[in-house]
């Protein structure tokens, strides 16, 4: 009954891939009707900042469709885009669990997005009264933080083009379809995600293309499985030497 009701109040569930729809259904499997009655769905344009670091954490967000990125401005005032999200996470959920009043990072849409909004107090009331929901949110938050910690340790050993290769590997694992990753070769975007200057990004892309590790088509970058494996072997070798 709840899944049918969920699909009724969240019509975008009928428009997304099955795995993602199942993630939503699993996340809200034990959600009470009173909580679902507070759901608000909003359409956001590309480039919209919908969570601002330091502002009151009064709303929980779930991404129904589209991609977002997290940006940290606390490193000498420089923006550093440290990850992109494509799973069903409760953005603002960490602040609820560790009892923080303000958002700890900035979230911005990378594409047009369909966003589910839930008032913080209702979300907190649900977690406080439902151990299954609390355990689920804690597990997802732990998995995310563990992934970020691992990536941070990896980046300590990587510089220049190697850091770009690491980012491309992660993008391939998350977004490749039919064994091929197709992405825009936006140098500034890659610069923001790696913390490298645009000039270094351009040199790295040129190097990878000359070595046959990527293929370009206009301003787009394409990576097939063989190219991905070459990058993976290269990064594994560098880390083995440093460790």
Automatic annotation (TrEMBL):
One of its GO terms (molecular function) is DNA binding. Keywords: DNA-binding, Transcription, Transcription regulation. Residues 158-227 form the HTH crp-type domain. Gene3D superfamilies: Jelly Rolls, Winged helix-like DNA-binding domain superfamily/Winged helix DNA-binding domain. SUPFAM superfamilies: cAMP-binding domain-like, Winged helix' DNA-binding domain. It holds the Pfam family HTH_Crp_2. One of its GO terms (biological process) is regulation of DNA-templated transcription. Residues 12-127 form the Cyclic nucleotide-binding domain. Coiled coil: none annotated. CDD domains: CAP_ED. This is Crp/Fnr family transcriptional regulator. The lineage of its organism: Bacteria, Bacillati, Bacillota, Clostridia, Lachnospirales.
